[in-house]
Amino acid sequence: MFKASADVMLPTSIIGSLPRPSWYTASLGSTPFLEAMVNSRYREQYEDAVSCFLRAQEVAGLDIVTDGDAHYDEQVGGMSWQSYPLTHMSGFSQTASPAIYNVGAVAYPRGHILHDFLEARVFPRIVGPVGRGNLQYKAMWKVAQRMTAKPVKVGTILPELLAASCEDDYYKDPIERTWALSDAVNEELNDLADAGCPVLQMEEPQIHMVPVRGKAFGKLDVGDLVKVFNNTVKGLRSKTEVWCHTCWGNPSQQRIFKEPQSYQPTLEALNQVEADALTFETCSSGPGDLKAIGEIIKDKKIVIGVIDHHTLQIERPDEVAALIREALKHIPAERLIISSDCGMGREGMGRRHAAYKMVSMVLGTNIVRAELGLPQAECLAADERYSLTVAKS
Question: One Pfam family for this entry, by name (predicted)?
């Protein structure tokens, strides 16, 4: 069900996370969100951070906004993306221990920045049947949505990555564990959709990773992973807009593959997921897959990344516009959404760089909107009336 992107041509958004303000020192840890919000210091810092994230997106002129993933704690490599569910769902131990990453990842040696990322994988173990526990996504969405009139998108990591992240003393095998996590996440997301959240984003199904990493757990092929995805979003599309986010990884804003990868081997499988929109990393990995994406994905909206989340270099508006024009050769404007490749809050980027990347995204999109005779988004950040530099007479 198209809700957030229904009435806007070439709508703009970001994938989710934004860099934490330096003054945001409060941590959630394993405390339930609603319990943490009873603490006046945490509540003030959390709400102020969400407000800053929303305002930065509004000043840039984005159409669909996020809360910047403000509930994530400040962890090495942005590990809170994975640790938050593992420390707030039921069925997990109260204490954490080092965990092996079971997705065929490279064993980065000591001396590589991503070795720290591997050492930061200290998670609780599964000790009983998993359940939604205290994820409390609905409460987080409400905090953000009551601060803005723009639709707020909420994202969550998907079950197969959670299943690959933790040690397990309860389930017989990782497949059983994955399906149990899928059922629990589905229950939480349906509650969130019932509350009125206009966009839910499913982050990183491992479908596109199979050609380069092999089957998940050596067992789940692309078809199996499509089934897991569809179970996780069961019942959602009649209530809200569902996005399926894919990229090639960015812990600590680093690339995890030596060479850019291609989506083409798994586009047919991605076309089978129960989602309204599919996201593709097309800035940092290049536009080479756009033709194939346009030929295969016909009944979903396509979200293209025009901002590279790995670098501090700000993309120029004309570069953004050129990438959108290239996409429009293969994807009709009414099915195209403009975004970042991935999140910009995975430890390596500052707030000012992220803010100007969003501004450049909107300015570049406005160039193409003008060429197509479409309304342009207001971008206060680029309004010359508010420049502090005195213009020459």
Answer: Meth_synt_2
Instruction: Tell me the per-residue pLDDT of 67-80, one tens digit each, with 9 for 90 and over.
Output: 999 999 999 988 89
Judge contact between 240 and 193, C-beta under 8 A: yes
Burial 44-68 (b: 16+ CB within 10 A, else e): ebbbebbbbbbebbbbbbbbbbbbb
Instruction: Enumerate the domain spans of the chain.
Output: 33-386
Residue 383 CB coordination number (10 Å)? 10
For 229-282, how does the pLDDT look when each residue is reduced to its tens digit (9 = 90+)?
A: 999 999 999 999 999 999 988 888 888 778 889 999 999 999 999 999 999 999
Across the chain, the runs of DSSP E, i.e. the strands, are 65-66, 90-98, 122-131, 152-157, 199-203, 241-245, 277-280, 301-307, 336-340
Categorize the per-residue pLDDT at 333 as very low, low, confident or very high, splitting at 50, 70 and 90.
very high
Neighbour-count burial for 230-253, b at 16+ CB within 10 Å, e otherwise: bbbbeebbebbbbbbbbbbbbbbb
| CA atoms of 119 and 372, how far apart (whole Å) | 50
Separation in Å, CA 199 to CA 16, 72, 319, 373: 12, 19, 28, 27
Q: What is the rounded (10 degree) CA torsion for 90, 94, 95, 96?
A: 10
pLDDT at 104: 56
Q: Across-strand partners of 279? A: 245, 303
| Three-state secondary structure call for residue 390 | coil
Helices (H), 200-316: 210-213, 222-232, 267-270, 290-296
CATH topology of domain 33-386: TIM Barrel (3.20.20)
pLDDT over 90 (residue 131): yes
Q: Share the mean pLDDT of the chain.
A: 94
Amino acid at 382: A
Q: Any idea what the Cα angle at residue 276 is, between residues 274 and 281, rounded to 5°?
A: 100
List residues bridging with 126 in a β-sheet: 92, 168
Burial of 299 (C-beta count, 10 Å sphere; 0-12/13-18/19+): exposed
Residues 66 and 186: their CA atoms lie apart, in Å, by 20
Task: Record the tokens describing residue 347, joined without a space.
Answer: 């430890």
